[in-house]
Write a structure and sequence with these properties.
Structural class: mainly alpha
Largest sheet: 2 strands, antiparallel
Number of helices: 4
Strand order of the largest sheet: 1-4
Low-confidence stretches: none
Number of strands: 4
Helix content: 55-70%
Order of helices and strands: EHHEEHEH
Strand content: 5-15%
Shape: rod-shaped
Number of domains: 1
């Protein structure tokens, strides 16, 4: 009988680690809305009640609609990754590579 092979890094988890890293980088490159939000309403670009209504009705929801899903994307990928074992048998690693095209 042969000795069991030592566990190896889970290739699917490694791919998800890389995806988390890339999503974080991409999220950091999305332009911020803090400048426009500060400039409209009470700032230097446009002041007054109409400006505040526009900011509250259009700019604030855009910020929430953009940044909320990006944050959840990182959380979702991390959650999927964290549900996987760090190491697997060499045989299972080969199966995962074949199954996922890694």
């Amino acid at each position: 009988m042969s000795e069991p092979e030592d566990p190896v890094t889970n290739p699917l988890r490694a791919e998800l680690d890389e995806l988390v890293r890339r999503v974080r980088l991409a999220t950091g490159e999305v332009p911020g809305l803090s400048g426009p939000l500060e400039a409209v309403g009470d700032g230097d670009a446009w002041k007054g009640p109409a400006a505040r209504r526009f900011r509250d009705a259009h700019l604030e929801p855009a910020r929430t609609g953009l940044y909320g899903p990006l944050g959840r994307l990182v959380d979702d990928v991390e959650s999927a990754r964290d549900g996987l074992p760090r190491e697997v048998s060499p045989e299972r690693a080969r199966e995962l590579r074949r199954e996922w095209g890694l």
